[in-house]
Design brief:
With 133 residues, this protein is α+β, with helices and mostly antiparallel strands. Helix content is 44%, strand content 16%. The chain has a two-stranded antiparallel ribbon with strand order 1-2. Strands 3-4 form a two-stranded parallel sheet. The chain is globular.
Length: 133
């Protein structure tokens, strides 16, 4: 299974789509965008991984009026490079990895996996709120 996440700048999930691993990233992004159509009125810029480049950039601009900016690794650098903006979604995936249920693929249905991702994120957010108050 492959997760397509839309997160805010803090790393909290705005929307999620789970697909089979054989689905192209661009096709998964279209499913994710269709899911949130009309819900994120203040959204202006979306940063995405290199797997989402191509005709998707123009498709998002025409259909949703968002600017889809692709964050690419510099060509002249070798080894690990911290990519700006992209680490936010990677950090969210790391947070979700702490949930044992999401660390392995136990689920057969995509909807079940999606539900457990939302449960795990709810738990993370509640723990943050509890520390604040």
């Amino acid at each position: 299974m492959k997760r397509h996440l839309l997160v805010d700048t803090l790393g909290f999930i705005i929307a999620l789509t789970v697909t089979t691993a054989s689905v192209q990233d661009r096709d998964g992004a279209k499913l994710l965008c269709a899911k949130i159509q009309g819900l994120c009125k203040g959204l202006a810029i979306v940063w995405a991984d290199g797997g989402y480049r191509g005709e998707l950039v123009q498709w998002v601009k025409e259909r949703f009026t968002w600017a889809l900016e692709i964050v690419l690794r510099p060509d002249n650098v070798k080894g690990f490079v911290l990519l700006p903006k992209r680490w936010v979604v990677e950090r969210t995936n790391a947070w979700l990895g702490h949930s044992r249920r999401l660390n392995r693929q136990y689920e057969v249905l995509h909807q079940t996996h999606e539900a457990f991702v939302y449960i795990a994120m709810t738990r993370i957010m509640l723990r943050r709120i509890h520390k604040i108050s």
